[in-house]
Each structure stands twice: as structure tokens, then as C-alpha cells.
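User: Hi! I'm working on a homework problem where we have to compare a predicted structure to a textbook description. Could you give me the structure for the chain below?
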Amino acid sequence: MINLRTPIDEDAIRSLKVGDVVSISGYIYCGRDAVLPKIVALAKKGSLEEQGIDLKGAVIFHTAVSPAGVGPTSSNKLEIESSFPDLSEAGVKLHLGKGAISEKTICSLKDNNSVFAVIPPVTALLESKTTERELVAFPELGMEALYRVKVDGYQAIIAAANGESIY
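Assistant: Happy to help. Predicted C-alpha cells:
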């Protein structure tokens, strides 16, 4: 088990290999297909900071945040997977979700020293390891808005790192 605490530094990401099991603690961002294109647009405009968003060393969990908890959505949805390159360039080090991603996305992760990890869809378990929630941006999207949550021990498997993939 490799323990990662946010913000995650470049060397920690560089050392990860496909198949590594990681435990993630600290603050992470949660967003999916409705909000991630908006976050990409903010990054391209250079206005993330105005929204209180700091992606340096960040984790993005592909999920909505509901009263029932959090659980991964498919990371290969067009709006989600197309966000990987820009969000990685903006500082995201770990993209967290489920499902196979394309070779093009795997290459973009390598180019930006970022990784993709899969997490099992176990909402109840993840909820028990989520200790804080904060709505950060785009409240009109409801549970699909951008949230920052504090987590303690989310476990995931590295699925794409350094140009390699389990898929």
C-alpha cells in the first residue's frame, strides 16, 4: 500500500506503477461530466484561483456528491476523458474513477506526469471515509457541481501511469 496525501508531489507520481495500490488522504475535488468542462474553461482562462480552486498536486474524483455519498462514474465519458489533458496540465496529479481510458489519454497523462486510478463502486465504504464536504463552484449544477471533500484512506489501483495501462 502506497500512502498519498494531497497535494501530491511530482516525485510521488513519477514513482507509481500500473497495479500499485494507493491510499489517498487529504482534500480532493469531485466532479463529473456536467462540471469538468467548466473547470477546463476556467483553467484555460487562468481564472481558477478566482473560484478558490487550486489544482496543483490535486486529485479529481469522477463522481457527484449526494446525500447518499460518493461513488465513481465512468471516466471514459467524452466530457470527463477529454478533461484529462487540460486538468493535468493545470496541476491535477491523479484522476480517480472507473473504466478503460484511451491510449491518447494515457499518453497525455504521461506528458503531464499524472496518473489515472480506478476505485471500486462502493459508495457506503467511501462515505465512511469522507470527513468534510464543501461546494466550491457551479452550485446551479446541484450534486454535479464542483466539490472539495476531505478523505481519509480512499483506496484505489493505479490503472495508467508513465505511458502504461492495465487496459
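For your comparison, note the following. The radius of gyration is 14 Å. The first strand starts at residue 2 and ends at 5. Good luck with the assignment!
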